[in-house]
Amino acid sequence: MTGTGTDTIEDAEDAEDAEEPLTDGGAAGADEVALDPWGSSSVSDYRKLFEEFGIEEFDELLADLPHPHYLMRRGVIFGHRDYRPVLEAMREGDPFAVLSGFMPTGDPHIGHKLVFDEIIWHQEQGGDAYALIADLEAHAARGLTWDEIDEHARDYLLSLLALGFDLEDGTVYRQSTEREVQDLAFELGIEANFSELGAIYGFDGETDVSHMQSVVTQMADILYPQLEGPKPTVIPVGPDQDPHVRLARDLASRMRYFGVTTAYASFEATEDELSVIGAAYDARESYADDPDQPRCVEAAQWLESGGTGVTEVETVEEDARDRAISKLENAGMEPLRPRTRFLNRRATEEAFEALIDTVEGEKRVFDEHVDAFDLDHDEAAEIARTIELAHDGYGFQPPSSIYHRFMTGLTGGKMSSSIPASHISLLDDPEDGYDKVKAATTGGRETAELQRELGGRADECPVYELYAYLLAGDDDEFAKRVYDECVGGERLCGDCKEQAAHLMKEFLREHQEKREEVADLLEAADIELESPRRG
User: Fold this and answer.
1) pTM of this prediction?
2) Fewer CB under 10 Å: which end of the chain, C or N?
């Protein structure tokens, strides 16, 4: 999460041609997508994230959002993982939260502003907003001293407040001073192991323990908003931080007292195996002596013979089909019958007994699970969470996430804090910001004549990105006009950069004035701006 890690927002690659105005120029096709929360990973083909990592397209949700942020409307926020519970809570006026964080390794820059805006927008929609300084991660993963961290942490928080974060109605903290986060990290660490962290992050025998500990702390950050009670929580991140989100979702499930699944017999089955078994149950009329009570062995025989015409069976892996057949055969004459299952993951004895007493209707009780025949999944999930919360459990909901595109550096290629000309710091002198934009690479043609004839390449232009991500603000018509005039050959790069440079200078001037105005609010807040740690 790099706190939810915008430190690597800096990394981006060149863009591909596109017919519609893609705010980052789209994506050009790399063969691989590597997501590294601490490295210099970049995404050359955002489409591969949908295919390889299960990230969903955000555009599909736009029609259901009452007041989508312009970053959503323009496709800068391009993907999500399980955002629908947050959206539903937003629409119904139910509690939800947003959390993101910042690793203070340098000055806050215009890339970080994306996440500031996403936190603030969700707060404005009624969410409980959390912003954190990932100082433990900066110390462990990047080797910054506490003095260096303190120097930058204040600047991040000032920019967050200057952009509109409501400190009275939100929570801001440092990892190193929030005891509840550290306590939760300790508990989460019981459910994680070195092999898992090695597989996810590439940790090996040379990785120091504090770096690994910082990962578990980030998991605690992500789940921290739910310590007061489970609620949908969204984590705005760049796609390179998705490994953190996936691990946090796994740990949220492992911390639950009970898992709620579908089953068809007393044995356990994987999701793929359940797909096969469910298809066999649906086809029971074609093979069972008594379709009202098909037997497991009958389903196994039907599957063994080919299970003709059931596409659900035909699309799963062959080994999943074989495993399902084996389990059905071992179950013999046991009836094949759908039921909702409560799995005892880590419940106390008292909580398990309370669950058994609470489940009404027909049920079967086993050593490690309870099968209910008169409950649907949603009813069962509510019962499981209620029992857990009544017996000192967390009841976590899996956290959601939204993903924004990386910004291209002003010099082309990557936007990097180590290349001053490639990025604009929110602390840059406004005149310096003006000069950086004026010197930026563009997507223009070689000559003005070719520009007028062929049009500019806005989808490959870092300057157009500035309009779409920042300078056009909430004015979609202005952003589209810039794009259309560019690709239509009416707008030449010199005039375009002059306008962008002027807007950037004004933005920096106004932002820095606002930072001065909110300085007293930050000083008065209950936040330790100087770490008591030294090392």
Assistant:
1) 0.85
2) C
